[in-house]
Amino acid sequence: MRIAVFVSGSGSNLQNIIDAVQDGRLANVEIAMVMADRDCYGIVRALDVDIPTYLLEDRSTFSEDADHNLEGEDIDLIVLAGFLSILTPEFTQKWEGKIINIHPALLPKFGGKGMYGKQVHKAVLESGDTESGATVHYVTAGVDEGEIIVQGTFPVEKGDTIEDLQRKVAEVEKEILIEAIQKINLGL
Ligand SMILES: Nc1nc2c(c(=O)[nH]1)N[C@@H](CN(C=O)c1ccc(C(=O)N[C@@H](CCC(=O)O)C(=O)O)cc1)CN2
Ligand SMILES: NCC(=O)N[C@@H]1O[C@H](COP(=O)([O-])[O-])[C@@H](O)[C@H]1O
């Protein structure tokens, strides 16, 4: 299975996929390309292992530019990994059922436009919820509205900070993203 990974940030989820391919947890999966909508450390991680990488900085045309780069590459799955731009309806329609995203909360709670990174953790803490987690879902034109594939949970403890949630989310994401990709890879 050939996958393309879209990034905007540190690329910890991309690194997790790279590691899983290299150690055999993701057998017969190839990261064919990485595309970024801004200069970010995710690009460094991709270049370190010689993955073809594209920096598409014009946000107004990212979906169109990304689609152009995907043409003829036989991509089976697009993974949004810490990706922060909203893809156009045209793009999500063309690639329907082939785009997944990882979100740092238990959707459908704490999702939608404006809900990314620390904003999500802040909202979870302010809600008083005693459980949170992360979600891998299919991507549609709406933001964070697609069918849920896998979720993982952790307890939110009294006194937890945004940084505590970031750490706990990262641990759960390491598991569920690989589980989701493998599930799709196996046609389950
Ligand atoms: N069409 C879709 N595009 C994207 C989806 C999706 O479900 N449908 N998921 C997001 C990922 N995401 C949450 O998991 C998310 C990312 C970004 C935002 C957001 O509000 N972004 C800001 C801009 C932030 C920036 O560029 O620094 C905005 O659009 O105003 C919300 C949710 C990826 N794309
Ligand atoms: N709504 C999108 C969103 O908030 N994505 C979140 O960005 C973080 C950094 O990812 P990274 O380290 O892989 O770049 C991850 O926790 C991911 O869930």
Automatic annotation (TrEMBL):
Pathway where it operates: Purine metabolism; IMP biosynthesis via de novo pathway; N(2)-formyl-N(1)-(5-phospho-D-ribosyl)glycinamide from N(1)-(5-phospho-D-ribosyl)glycinamide (10-formyl THF route): step 1/1
Catalytic residues in the record: 103
Binding of (6R)-10-formyltetrahydrofolate, residues: 59, 101
Catalytic activity, reaction form: N(1)-(5-phospho-beta-D-ribosyl)glycinamide + (6R)-10-formyltetrahydrofolate = N(2)-formyl-N(1)-(5-phospho-beta-D-ribosyl)glycinamide + (6S)-5,6,7,8-tetrahydrofolate + H(+)
Transmembrane segments: none
Signal peptide (residue range): none
Domain Formyl transferase N-terminal residues, every copy: 1-181
Keyword Transferase: yes
Key words of the record: Purine biosynthesis, Transferase
Enzyme class: transferase
Residues noted as binding N(1)-(5-phospho-beta-D-ribosyl)glycinamide in the record, renumbered to the chain: 11-13
UniProt-listed Enzyme Commission number(s): 2.1.2.2
Molecular function GO terms recorded: phosphoribosylglycinamide formyltransferase activity
Residues the UniProt record annotates as site (Raises pKa of active site His): 144
Family that this chain belongs to: Belongs to the GART family.
Chain's role: Catalyzes the transfer of a formyl group from 10-formyltetrahydrofolate to 5-phospho-ribosyl-glycinamide (GAR), producing 5-phospho-ribosyl-N-formylglycinamide (FGAR) and tetrahydrofolate.
Entry-linked HAMAP family: PurN
Name of the protein this chain belongs to: Phosphoribosylglycinamide formyltransferase
Organism: Moheibacter stercoris
Record gene name: purN
